Amino acid sequence: MSSIPTDQWYVAAYGREIGQELFSRTICGESILFWRTGAGEVTAMSDRCVHRRFPLSEAPSRLVDDQVVCGYHGFTYGADGRCVAVPGQTRVPRTARLKSYPTVERDSFVWVWIGDPAKADPAAVPRAPWLASPDYTTVSGMEPLKARFELLVDNLLDLSHETYLHGGYIGTPEVAATPTTTEVDDEAGIVYVSRHMDDAECPPFYAKSTGLTGRIMRWQDIEYSPPCLYKLHSRIAPVGVLPRPDGSDPDAFHVEVVYAITPETEHSTHDFWAVARDFALDDQGVSDFLAEQNRTVVLQDVAALDVLERVIASEPPGYQELSINIDTGGLAARRMLAKLVEPSAAPARTA
Ligand code: FES
Ligand SMILES: [Fe+2]
């Protein structure tokens, strides 16, 4: 059985990736064609012509006035996936229809629902409001991962690896040395992992972007909504500077690090990453620096996880992992993911 939960929302793309042209991406093993209508709506349908499976994203297939014309024999489809014209006859078979997928465009992402469309509730799309907020400046990207999505979930839920895998970027000795707390909200479907470092070295990622020198308070509060959306609320402040009693926090720097973990296949993943900050909003130098640094960090993870995937795929099953305290969040996430693929899995939660 597949380990990928299907009755779920997944990030398929950034909104900026989809225009009035044919765009294909494989999500959860399904090859999906995306395009934007003249009115600006994103559509999602199977990227396989019902006639002889020619991919509708491949030239010479083309988009003409909100209709897709298959480049092989000319079957023509509307924005709802229904076939409106076939060659050589006027009657269009009733079953000539592409599978279409519900989509929601929100917080700069295009979300797609894989699975039973009747269960798709747009209100259940988890939110990352900073990514489209004028109060934040965001840099973002996507890196392909040749590893199963569960390895990225493990990776992101346990940031102690920053010290080792990302030394010189975001890792300092305090990350691995500081214990975490984990909370699981089964009802809302969220795993929380927090690590509050109250007197830590400032890694280059934050020193160069904030201008802080010397030691810092560095709080990492993770919020993971399985399967797709991961948020790391990162708070950086001079040592001893706390949020005010009214909850405001004007003397700290806030960075919202967002990942969307979208399975491409059972053994590959789209690793969407975004870094939103509430300081130096108009400073292009800071944007360029954070984009380059975060991409480098993501690629360090990609390299490690690609290795792990090769190891796992080439060795017999049954390897006994040894888990310790740092793995509590990752294990909670695994339990939640396992529940989502059970046949009796509850309908989509509201986030
Ligand atoms: S394969 Fe598309 S029209 Fe024949
Ligand atoms: Fe990492």
UniProtKB/TrEMBL annotation:
This is Vanillate monooxygenase. PANTHER family: 3-KETOSTEROID-9-ALPHA-MONOOXYGENASE, OXYGENASE COMPONENT, IRON-SULFUR DOMAIN CONTAINING PROTEIN. Gene3D superfamilies: Naphthalene 1,2-dioxygenase Alpha Subunit, Chain A, domain 1, Rieske [2Fe-2S] iron-sulphur domain. SUPFAM superfamilies: Bet v1-like, ISP domain. Residues 9-112 form the Rieske domain. Pfam families: Rieske, VanA_C. Transmembrane segments: none annotated. Keywords: 2Fe-2S, Iron, Iron-sulfur, Metal-binding, Monooxygenase, Oxidoreductase. InterPro entries: Cholesterol_7-desaturase (IPR050584), Rieske_2Fe-2S (IPR017941), Rieske_2Fe-2S_sf (IPR036922), VanA_C_cat (IPR044043).
